[in-house]
Amino acid sequence: MEKNLRxxxxxxxxxxxxxxxxxxxxRWRNSDFxxxxxxxxxxxxVEGQINWIKNKVMTGExxxxxxxxxxxxxxxxxxxxxxxxxxxxxxEFGFLIGEEAYAGGGRGTEMACLTSDYALEHMDIHKxxxxxxxxxxxxxxxxxxxxxxxxxxxxxxxxxxxxxxDIVFLGKLKK
Length: 175
Prior knowledge:
Layout: E1 7-8, E2 12-16, H1 22-29, H2 32-35, H3 46-57, E3 63-69, E4 74-85, E5 90-97, H4 107-122, E6 127-133, H5 137-145, E7 149-160, E8 163-173
Parallel strand pairs: 5-6
Antiparallel strand pairs: 1-2, 2-3, 3-4, 4-5, 6-8, 7-8
Helix pairs in contact: 1-3, 4-5
């Protein structure tokens, strides 16, 4: 991925994640606001994120972007494409808005649209899918407004904090 890549929306723009973004990511990821909406609940460390960026993002195994609010020109979150399966032309999309003041207002929708369109148009991917907790309707709506369609509901698919959680699967296909 080009270092100078910039994916533009009306409300946000995305830039490739680099080592300078590790501390912001860990702060966001470990906040109660994000952790309560995430499938994986273990805290992250800056050292672990730096290793992730070096070994996954910089090698191209994972595509990860930092999302910026266009009006304020501040980092507000991240998007990523993981599990890139070149043989079956699919990958998994995920995102988080770490700055709670910027949640809502269509930023998540643009993040979903820009990232999934990048995968479908520039990575030889046919399908981008997302797994979202059914108890997170805002993220489900953002994905749907970003072009994803609900594909199914997996009842009691994962256990979080000692109780089962339903997972909504969404997908977006290359047109």
